[in-house]
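[AMINO ACID CHAIN]
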Amino acid sequence: MAKDPLISVVIPVYNGEMYVKPCLENLMAQTYKNLEIIVIDDGSTDRSGEIASTFPVEVVQMPQNSGLSAARNKGMEVAKGSYIHFMDVDDAINADFYKALAEAIMATQADIAVSGMINEIKPHRTMLFQEQRVLSSIQEKLKATNVGKWGYVWRYVFRIDFLKAHHLRFEEGRLIEDLPFSLPAVVFADKLVLVPEAVYTYMLRENSIMTKKDKAHRKRRRKDLQYVKAFRQEFARKHKIKIPGVPTGRLSYYYVKWFT
């Protein structure tokens, strides 16, 4: 590349002191160096922010715990890069992750670059690409990413100007926030590129949003899951698209809206 673009890496953390050091060491070891690493300390009461401040990163303190979506939105507001990636503090990426994504997105002038993923929590959702492909049709993009079922935002590097042009932000106050952001982004992108050399590992951790087992948390997750299903149905109906593997017809829409 003639010039390596600046990639902003937004990492929200709330009481994740045991993960901050390995996460930032993972980023320090990246072969791609033009990174702006932004740690959003979301009102932690442990040493998360203190540990992050020992690394050459920007630490942004939220005044109180506001949730993952609010932290990611704050990261978008302060990011200075041409591209942005949202990473979870307790996950991992391969050493050439940003190098591969930056080269692909610059060479193809895509709005989004998509990494492969290893999903330790739900192994059947592991998705690794065999070759680099540039996709522009909505159905091809939906099929290749399976974003309508698996919304994980950390799979993507986005062109920031693209996100701003479409006014894409995370909906605050919910536990399941990725799909209502990722699905419109994939649909609205003029082009996206699949990048086999970049792999994100979604780690299995105790007491994560996906593994917490207390009754109140499970109830809230179920409620948010129904909201996401209704959002997906309405989005598909509004944009006249069919999401692979997901029933999005009118009868399905009204069932989700009124009976779930």
In short: The longest helix spans residues 215-239. Residues 25 and 179 are 29 Å apart (CA to CA).
